[in-house]
Design goal:
Blueprint (H helix, E strand, L loop, with lengths): L5 E7 L4 H7 L5 H9 L1 E6 L6 H10 L3 H4 L5 E3 L7 E3 L10 H7 L4 E4 L12 E4 L12 E2 L3 H9 L14 H25 L4 E6 L1 H13 L15 H17 L6 E6 L3 E4 L2 E4 H7 L13 E2 L12 E4 L4 E5 L15 H13 L12 E3 L1 H4 L10 E4 L5 E4 L1 E2 L5 E2 L9 E4 L1 E7 L7 E2 L3 E2 L3 H8 L18
Parallel strand pairs: 1-8, 1-9, 2-22, 2-23, 5-6, 5-8, 11-17
Antiparallel strand pairs: 2-21, 3-4, 6-7, 9-21, 10-20, 11-19, 12-18, 13-14, 14-16, 15-16
Length: 464
């Protein structure tokens, strides 16, 4: 494989192999063309397989423990109520664009999570979906905002409140946002100097969460002939056409990577982790809620509580350790044995029909090379991501089929997509054992830069 003159990364948040490589393959002309001309395969994500920290992990080639970022919300210390939202400031390791900037290469970054607030690079940055609004300083340099307004008008950061029953609005806004974002990206390619350019489209993720039940015949809410049956396919066609328009702006000396941070799959329901902890005697409340509500840290009887949990696409369980938490109950010398006991019992939680769920429970030490900041004591994939974690209490049941953050049909899956076309690369080959952490080293290698020793991924394809 020859070195590339330039590299473009087209990030499709949540794009999933069972659709891109299988079910929709015949409908996606440009993505299929890239597969024929290059290499492709399933891309294993990090644990947890969620947008933040996954994109940061891909371009720093560090795992979540090394970054100290375990999700959108992270404990800032061992108190009970201090949670911080991840941002670009949370990423302390150098990303590909930092290395390229230091080497005199020019970069373009459009909506790559987490990129708010935007950090200086040798080039330009437009903030990701974490940006509060376009009234904030969401670009670098700040003057870039005026250029965006001239080029595409009122820039759309994300689909607001995408977990909604107003499905027609979601479809409309997803299409408008995606067309606008790719148009802006192509504008930058034409008007700014660049050696590396990267865009991440979040709309794929939003469409999955909003419409999975309408096309997946195995989803428990699927109804044949429903009016939204083709929404996901139509959106993928739109993305493919935007990819094609972008490819038409590139020459044969430019390498192209298309990849996703994770995949998607149907969501069966939610497991109310805190409700289960209460029933098992691990979590004590000062008063019992009479209706489903979020767990209030003020309502927890901490001297009688051994563990509590957080909701999300994956579950996080925290242990109330004596001498670590303010009112810790579990002695340090009993920590490992108690955590093993908790993990064993969580794995054994059955589904709503009493069947084994196939839940996976991880300790941070077994999946990360180091554990910076405050990691969860346990990370849980309920039903191996068929179920999400719900942090509600007062539900009256361990299982729920109503999402606590609004209508949501899909969970994330561990496998994303990877496609690469590069000068001198033999095309049409499927690669195995690809990992998200390989993406950063691959970009540097394509541009002829050495891969820093701290990066843990390998270059793709490793053997030519």
């Amino acid at each position: 494989m020859s070195k590339a003159k330039k590299v473009v990364v087209l990030g499709l948040d949540s794009a999933t192999p069972q659709l891109v490589f299988d079910r929709f393959a015949g409908e996606l002309e440009h993505l299929e063309g890239l597969r024929r001309q290059g290499v492709w395969g399933e891309l294993t994500s990090i644990i947890p397989a969620i947008t933040v920290p996954a994109w940061a992990c891909s371009m720093t080639s560090r795992d979540p423990g090394q970054l100290g970022i375990y999700g959108f919300r992270n404990r800032t210390d061992y108190s009970y109520d201090r949670l911080g939202i991840a941002s670009s400031d949370s990423v302390k390791e150098e990303a590909v664009w930092d290395i390229l900037s230091r080497s005199g290469k020019s970069v373009i970054l459009l909506a790559v999570p987490p990129s708010y607030p935007p950090r200086p690079v040798n080039g330009c940055v437009v903030g990701c979906f974490l940006t509060p609004s376009t009234k904030s300083e969401y670009t670098y340099p700040p003057s870039l905002r005026e250029e965006i307004e001239r080029a595409v008008g009122d820039y759309k950061i994300d689909i607001e409140e995408f977990r909604t029953e107003d499905k027609a609005r979601i479809v409309r806004e997803a299409h408008e946002m995606t067309k606008q974002r790719f148009a802006l990206f192509r504008h930058f390619l034409k008007t700014h100097p660049w050696d590396f350019a990267m865009i991440v489209e979040i709309g794929v993720d939003r469409i999955h969460h909003g419409f999975w039940q309408y096309f997946d015949e195995t989803h428990h809410r699927y109804e044949p002939g429903n009016p939204y049956e083709d929404v996901i396919l139509d959106y993928y066609r739109l993305v493919d056409s935007e990819v094609g328009l972008t490819l038409s702006e590139l020459d044969d000396e430019t390498a192209v990577l298309v990849y996703s941070d994770h995949g998607a799959r149907k969501m069966v329901g939610g497991v109310c982790i805190n409700e289960w902890l209460i029933r098992e005697g691990y979590l004590a409340l000062r008063s019992t809620p009479t209706s489903p509500s979020r767990l209030s840290m003020e309502d927890v009887n901490w001297p009688r509580t051994k563990a509590w949990g957080e909701g999300g696409y994956y579950g996080r369980v925290f242990i109330n350790v004596r001498g670590r938490e303010p009112e810790g109950m579990v002695p340090r010398e009993e920590y490992e044995a108690f955590r093993d006991e908790l993990a064993t019992k969580i794995r054994a939680i059955p589904d709503h029909e009493g069947r084994d769920m196939g839940t996976k429970v991880y300790t941070p030490e077994e999946i990360y090379r180091e554990c910076r900041n405050v990691p969860p004591d346990l990370l849980v994939y309920f039903g191996d991501l068929d179920w999400r974690s719900a942090g509600l209490v007062g539900t009256g049941s361990i299982h729920t089929f109503e999402n606590d953050t609004g209508p949501d049909d899909a969970n994330h899956s561990q496998q994303g997509i990877f496609i690469m076309k590069a000068p001198g690369l033999q095309g049409g080959r499927e690669l195995k054992d690809l990992h998200l952490l390989d993406c950063g080293p691959t970009v540097l290698d394509l541009l002829g830069l050495p891969v820093p020793a701290g990066m843990v991924g390998r270059t793709i394809p490793a053997s030519g």
